[in-house]
Amino acid sequence: MGRRIQGQRRGRGTPTFRAPSHRYKANLSHRNVEDADVVTGEIVGIEHDPARSAPLADIEFEDGDRRLVLAPEGVAVGDEIQIGVSAEIEPGNTLPLAEIPEGVPVCNVERQPGDGGKFARASGVSATLLTHDRNAAVVQLPSDEMRRLSPECRATIGVVAGGGRTEKPFVKAGNKHHKMKSRGSKYPRVRGV
Prior knowledge:
Blueprint lengths: L5 H7 L25 E10 L8 E6 L4 E5 L9 E5 L9 E3 L8 E3 L19 E6 L4 E4 L5 E4 L4 E4 L15 H9 L12
């Protein structure tokens, strides 16, 4: 009798290979602003999410809405953030690419207008807005790939917080164990079968 290879074990769908998504805090996406040019909110907390490497900012908006967004470097509890076409160019504010000056680092960039953000979401990364005109905006992603996107795609100003995460060693196997518990992968790997 042979052994089941790893891919066959993964395909069964046991809890060993399933991500514990019931523990994840939020499905992150940009807030839609229909009527107003800009919506203002205040950061009321910074939270950890097992689903991702970056911290989240808990924002309470002036209309009572409350949601979690990726926290850029430099924001703190009590800071005010803006979302909309006429928002200021400050870390944490979300605007369409057409309204952002060239050369500014951005994160959580949308692939299609309104999809909530797909690019540059890991801790410590950012994309750079290179050029834009009426038809397209060119963004350099963290992988150095150049992407032509719609100028209506939104992005958050700044670099995602948590950039020094990889510099601190795990030191103990238990710390690595707790990290891997929140991922959908088998751990530890003790043999190459």
